Amino acid sequence: MTHSPARHPALRHGLQLAAFIAVGCAAAGVHLGAVRLLVEHGGLAPLRANVLGWLLAFVVSFSGHRSLTFRAQRAPLLRSAGRFFILSAAGFAVNQAAYALLLHTSDLRYDWALAWVLIGVAVLTFILGRFWAFKGQAAAPSP
Fold first, then answer.
1. How many Å separate Cα 120 from the centre of its chain?
2. Which of 41, 96, 102, 113 is the most exposed place for a label (fewest CB within 10 A)?
């Protein structure tokens, strides 16, 4: 007897959380990697590099969340893209403000400060992504 995730909400939510973490780690890796590259080899200031890192990470994040994390919610592409951009831009505003604060008030290296900020914003992104940006009609449970 096989157990379908659709029949077991705890399993379905666990798989969704695992997908969110995988996509989020990929996007955060792109974001942090781009910032480090732009700061260390491109001569950009960390806050300026952060903008470009976020834009690259947005593409990874939206693509991954649409195709993996929230695919069962069947949200229309253009609506979810617009909503996710708004959510991501708001998250980035929080990110940039918190990052600037850490850069100016702590002794953390710029890359460690950004890593901590990315973790904090990720939690907010999951909650708002699940209940707003990718809200759609959930797939009907299998008989």
1. 11
2. 41
d(CA 66, CA 81): 9
| Structure tokens that stand for 33 in this block | 């990697």
Output the six-digit token pair for 102. 């850490």
This model's pTM is above 0.85:
no
Q: How much is the CA Rg of the chain, to the nearest whole Å?
A: 17
Give residue for tokens 């260390």: 40
CB contact set of 43 (below 8 Å; sequence gap of 6+): none
The three state secondary structure string of 70-105 is CHHHCCCHHHHHHHHHHHHHHHHHHHHHHHHHHHHH
Return d(Cα 72, Cα 90) in angstroms, integer: 24
Residue pLDDT, tens place only, 15-43: 888 998 999 999 999 999 999 999 999 99
Backbone conformation region of residue 106, classed left if phi is above 0, alpha if psi is from -120 to 50, else beta: beta
3-state secondary structure of 133: helix
